Amino acid sequence: MKAFLILEDGTVFEGTSIGSKREMISEIVFNTSMTGYLEVLTDPSYAGQAVVMTYPLIGNYGITPDMESKKAWPDGYIVRELSRMPSNFRCEGTIQDFLEKQDIPGIAGVDTRALTKILREKGTMNGMITTNEAFDLEEILPKLKAYEVGDVVSKVTCSEKYVLPGKGYKVALMDYGAKNNIAKSLNQRGCEVTVYPAHTKASEILASNPDGIMLSNGPGDPKTCEDIIAEVKKLYESDVPIFAICLGHQLMALANGGETHKLKYGHRGGNHPVKDLRTNRVYISSQNHGYVVDDQTLDKSVAVPAFVNVNDGTNEGLQYTGKNIFTVQFHPEACPGPQDSGYLFDRFIEMMGGAK
After folding, report:
1. Is 68 a catalytic residue?
2. pLDDT in tens, 171-201
3. 247, 303 Cβ separation under 8 angstroms
4. Parallel, antiparallel, or unpaired for β 281-294 and 259-276?
5. Which of 223, 272, 301, 339 is the most buried (most CB within 10 A)?
6. Is 246 a catalytic residue?
7. What is the pLDDT of residue 340?
8. Where does L-glutamine bind (predicted)?
9. 247 is an annotated ligand-binding site residue
10. Which class for 259: exposed (0-12), middle (13-18), buried (19 or more C-beta within 10 A)?
11. Is 220 annotated as a binding residue?
């Protein structure tokens, strides 16, 4: 069946329908990872977005037990070529069947290189995937321009708290759309991890007397999370060590008077170089974000830059002055991507008192 990807600038790509046949409108973003497509599909940070995979062949090792959450989150999926015959000893099915079961519309046969160049030159745009060959462009374009991602954190967070047992430090993990490997990375270091829904009050978190607090990644514009930002400010004012990733990093900055802004086309992939300003070492990182913190809007008495993006100079991390708090924009838990910066979890353990 034919399918069409329509961008809000009027550009139309024709391809073949994959996954669900329903029509969808979403923000179109691209990911440059060469592997890890299942982790991308199950990353809650993609809620409200449709993902273009720049690597030309997707699905060659099928569906494996590597999901980062219980379901897939992107609104749509766009690929150059979809493998019909996956080959891997861990394979449990095809990506085509997975997309259908997850009700995610997709399109294959698209020139993803040309599409990515458009998104890089013009910036991230909204778009539609449809199988309707008689679509009316004049009717569709206003709908595309009107689309907004909205409150997706409430959509992706857990419904109630749960615990991953451990004999070490007690860590409260705020689930703003957390990938599984964040809790797993802490659990592997002996921590007892209690995962809390995004809108949990700071008073409840602090009443549990955690040794440390983790603020997770998540989707959407951080400025729309006003209620959460107010609670993060209360967590900041406590003396509990805090480590934050991605959206959590942005929320902590906003809670302390900083500003965020949207990047032209974001950072999404597994090969982004970041420099640790403490050691001057460069690490290759996994990233998935469309917004960044403007570190110039934070007074040095509040926070100082800790990491910087080597490609474009944007902020990739903050160390909070006089506080046991540090935050990073990238994903030290990886999945997919390199685990070069996994040492940051060890730094967090040290902040809580060192190895037990």
Report:
1. no
2. 999 999 999 999 999 999 999 999 999 999 9
3. no
4. antiparallel
5. 272
6. yes
7. 87
8. 45, 218, 220, 247, 250, 288, 290-291
9. yes
10. middle
11. yes
Catalytic residue among 191, 225, 246, 335: 246
Residue 354 has pLDDT above 90, yes or no: no
Nearest to 284 by CA among 251, 330, 238, 352: 330
Here the tokens at position 154 are 């409430």
Please pick, among 267, 272, 289, 331, the residue that the annotation labels catalytic: 331
> What confidence tier does 356 reach under pLDDT thresholds 50, 70, 90?
low
Residue 59 known to bind ligand: no
CA distance 44 to 35: 18
Residue 136's Cβ-count burial label (10 Å; 0-12, 13-18, 19+) is exposed
263-288 in b/e form (b: 16+ CB < 10 A) is eebbbbbbebebbbeeeeeebbbbbb
295 backbone dihedrals φ, ψ, rounded to 5°: -70, -15
Task: Give the angle subtended at the CA of 331 by the CAs of 288 and 229, to the nearest 5°.
Answer: 80
Q: Indicate if the alpha-carbon torsion angle 279, 180, 19, 156 is positive or negative.
A: negative
Q: Which helix (H) or strand (E) holds 101?
A: helix 95-101
The answer to whether the peptide bond before residue 336 is cis (omega within 30 degrees of 0) is: yes
331 in catalytic set: yes
- Alpha carbons 249 and 330: distance in angstroms, whole number: 9
Which amino acid would we find at residue 70? K
285 annotated among ligand-binding-site residues: no
Question: Is 23 in a helix, a strand, or coil?
Answer: coil
Residue written as tokens 């179109």? Answer: 28
Domain topology for 2-146: Glucose Oxidase; domain 1 (3.50.30)
Angle between helix 247-255 and helix 226-237 axes, rounded to 10 deg: 70
With contact defined as beta carbons under 8 Å apart, do 176 and 221 qualify? no
Indicate the domain borders of the chain: 2-146, 153-351
What average pLDDT does the segment 217-235 reach?
Answer: 97
The DSSP secondary-structure symbol of 296 reads: G
Report the residue count for the chain: 356
Instruction: Please state whether beta strands 12-19 and 24-31 pair in parallel, antiparallel, or not at all (unpaired).
Output: unpaired
**From the candidate CATH numbers 2.60.40.420, 3.40.50.1220, 3.40.50.880, 3.40.50.1820, the one assigned to the domain spanning 153-351:** 3.40.50.880
What are the tens digits of pLDDT across the range 265-314?
999 999 999 999 999 999 999 999 999 999 999 999 999 999 999 999 99
